[in-house]
Amino acid sequence: MISNSTKPGEFAFIAALAKQAAHTPEALGLGDDGAVLWLGDGRKLVLVADMLQAGVHTMKGASAAQIASKALRTNLSDLAAMGAEPAFYLSTICWPGAPDEHEMSILVETLENEQKQFNLSLIGGDTICGQGPLTISMTVLGWASGPLLRRVGAQIGDDVWVSGIIGDGWLGLGVAQGNITSLDTNDADYLLGRYEYPEPRLALGKRLAPLAHCALDVSDGLIADAKHLARAGDCCLHLDYEHIPLSNAARHWLSVQNNQKTAINALMENGDDYELLFTAAVDQGQRIDEISHDLGLDLTRIGRVIKGQGVMLGTPDGAVQPAKHSGFTHF
């Protein structure tokens, strides 16, 4: 049972659910980005679910269409983290009062466009009117015919890799909130787009499935999600500050910060990047570089797996320190 004497926190609550309620192998102990149903024809059906609420996962005044788009994309990112291809989804919407016809029309058009882009179809859901902020929950189903990517599996000596760019999602949130005003219009618009419309790395997940030892998507923050891989693999991920991939916009923001180390930590500690973090054997480096070239997507080696627990951060001056920040949690 969860103790009533202390506030359990989000991940303690999930751990309690896993121990007391998620008893079937399909749940994967609630420790991965999705659940799996093994089918008789050799295929695996991967199921993921995510809920987004205005004012929590998006700006309070975000449109229903923008929230729906982000909800779909964050679910697709979870599918990517397991090496699956999208097929179907269910959408549940709680409107804050009766929506107007124009708002509903834009939402339908947006989902139609997203379906075409990511090759999946709506097969059900529910719609209600409530009293709280606009809330959209989606369940996405995808197929995996080959190996699954899991969070468990990191091996001592592995390289640690990440796709794309880190920190842009958090900076985009700062732009949306009006907290970051030192950037030019092009940088600000780019970062806002990265926050509002994350790009699920579906093609990458499928290519990584046969060769990566473990993977997840970076939603809570690079350091927090690296800790998830370390915990699942009973190991330590040693990450190097100087190898963390940053966009030009992030570098422009860094250039006007008083404390560079604190600023880089902030980029690593905060979420909404939806890139893939994974580990692979050292001898897979050439294949990973080939995948990067084929997909036109930067894949950067940012550290290694070592003995120990948690996450260690290596600085350019050779110092090593434990990562203490826990990343984003809902409670």
Write up what this structure looks like.
By secondary structure, the protein is an alpha+beta fold. It has two domains: 10-144, PurM-like, N-terminal domain (60s Ribosomal Protein L30, Chain: A, 2-Layer Sandwich), CATH 3.30.1330; 159-322, PurM-like C-terminal domain (Phosphoribosyl-aminoimidazole Synthetase, Chain A, domain 2, Alpha-Beta Complex). Helices cover 35% and strands 24% of the residues. The protein has ten helices and twelve strands. The protein has helices at residues 10-20, 64-81, 101-118, 168-177, 185-196, 202-208, 222-233, 248-254, 260-269, 285-295, and strands at 35-38, 44-53, 85-95, 121-129, 135-144, 159-163, 214-217, 236-240, 276-280, 299-306, 310-314, 320-322. The protein has a seven-stranded mixed β-sheet with strand order 7-9-6-10-8-11-12. Strands 1-2-5-3-4 form a five-stranded mixed β-sheet. A hairpin with a 5-residue loop joins strand 11 (310-314) and strand 12. Helix 2 (64-81) packs parallel to helix 6 (202-208) and helix 6 (202-208) runs antiparallel to helix 10 (285-295). The model is unreliable at 1-6 (pLDDT under 50).
The count of DSSP E runs of length 2 or more, i.e. the number of strands, is: 12
The name CATH uses for the topology of the largest domain is Phosphoribosyl-aminoimidazole Synthetase, Chain A, domain 2
Q: How large a portion of the residues is in β-strands, by DSSP E?
A: 15-25%
Instruction: Quickly count the helices.
Output: 10
